[in-house]
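Bumping my old thread because nobody answered last time. Still need a sequence for this structure:
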């Protein structure tokens, strides 16, 4: 449906033809008794063929919707005959599960983050400042080498490229800051974030806003990115001088993924408050990444964000992400109450470590695989 056309008989024939062309190469690697996890709609038509090879098949859905629209339901009706063949179906939240599936085969496994990845690994304060300096996000930060070695990565990580900044003057290293890391995307609401901060987070907090996003040049599958960036820049230019100087837009280079990840990591660890004011969201693991860094988070109470944040305990949920006053008041409250902000951040980190890291996800999958094998008559290893 990416071409905007109907999911008709012609589309089904084309879908099945492409999958039939690919099935032999995949089948060569599958043996009876194997467990195969098929991710998302694109390869769902392979499920029956893999089961014919004697494999048990789990279908994992990463496309999460709170309120499916007509086009989403059309897609589900198209995919249902293929997906129903799976031995188990995995969704990120129970509310995301589609109707018509056997509930006994349903499993809920939340996405997870890798705490050892460049985006999430621990960074000491000097490394954070060095990364901010090297990327240009805070040129007044102390200059230190950003080269660091890790056992899991054969090549040391390094920040060499600079972000593209749209600002009146550089952000210094001691000014309190509020951060959202998202694409230049309508559903991430950069326009609402800028307006809500500028109008409803008072200058007396001394806080600045950073909206950091991947460079639009580097994201080929995001055609609206450039337009949204231009709208954000235009909005920023219309703000009164006192408000405009507190708003910083950053397009982060994407040529080297590890470099980009360290920039994001450093920004998240540096700021006082992190926000995720999305208008729609699947699971939103950027929230878990922020919580891992012990940062207080203000986020929209939608989608999988509701699974991550316990409102008032591990962060603050916004009932209506379009309510800019409520957004600004929530952010301001945390800026003016650092003790509460620190407590929320500590609890947030504990929740992420318990619920949304790779070891927890692995154990969930192992339990599901055991269940699938037992149901299929294959004795799972002890």
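Sorry it took so long. Here it is:
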């Amino acid at each position: 449906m990416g071409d905007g056309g109907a999911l008709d008989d012609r589309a089904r024939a084309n879908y099945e033809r492409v999958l039939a062309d690919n099935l032999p190469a995949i089948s060569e690697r599958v043996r009876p008794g194997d467990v195969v996890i098929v991710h998302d709609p694109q390869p769902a038509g392979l499920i029956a063929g893999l089961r014919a090879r004697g494999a048990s098949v789990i279908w994992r859905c990463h496309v999460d919707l709170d309120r499916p629209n007509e086009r989403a339901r059309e897609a589900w009706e198209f995919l249902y005959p293929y997906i129903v063949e799976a031995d188990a179906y995995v969704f990120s939240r129970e509310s995301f599960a589609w109707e018509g599936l056997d509930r006994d085969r349903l499993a809920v496994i939340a996405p997870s983050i890798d705490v050892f990845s460049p985006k999430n690994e621990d960074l000491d304060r000097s490394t954070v400042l060095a990364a901010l300096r090297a990327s240009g996000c805070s040129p007044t930060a102390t200059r230190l080498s950003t080269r660091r070695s890790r056992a899991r990565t054969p090549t040391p990580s390094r920040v060499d490229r600079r972000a593209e900044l749209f600002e009146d003057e550089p952000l210094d290293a001691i000014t309190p800051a509020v951060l959202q890391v998202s694409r230049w995307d309508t559903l991430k609401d950069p326009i609402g974030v800028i307006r809500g901060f500028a109008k409803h987070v008072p200058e007396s907090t001394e806080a600045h806003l950073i909206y950091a996003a991947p460079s639009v040049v580097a994201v080929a599958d995001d055609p609206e990115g450039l337009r949204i960036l231009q709208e954000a820049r235009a909005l920023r230019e219309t703000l009164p001088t006192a408000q405009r100087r507190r708003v910083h837009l950053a397009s982060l280079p994407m040529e080297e993924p590890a470099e980009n990840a360290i920039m994001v990591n450093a920004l998240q660890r540096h700021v006082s408050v992190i926000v995720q004011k999305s208008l729609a969201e699947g699971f939103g693991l950027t929230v878990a990444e922020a919580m891992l860094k012990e940062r207080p988070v203000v986020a929209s109470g939608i989608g999988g964000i509701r699974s991550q944040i316990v409102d008032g305990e591990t962060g603050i949920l916004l009932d209506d992400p379009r309510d800019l006053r409520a957004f600004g008041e929530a952010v301001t409250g945390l800026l003016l109450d650092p003790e509460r902000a620190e407590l929320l951040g500590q609890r947030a980190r504990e929740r992420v470590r318990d619920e949304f890291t790779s070891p927890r996800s692995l154990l969930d999958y192992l339990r599901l695989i055991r269940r699938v094998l037992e149901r299929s008559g294959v004795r799972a290893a002890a």
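The longest helix spans residues 9-27. Let me know if any region looks off to you.
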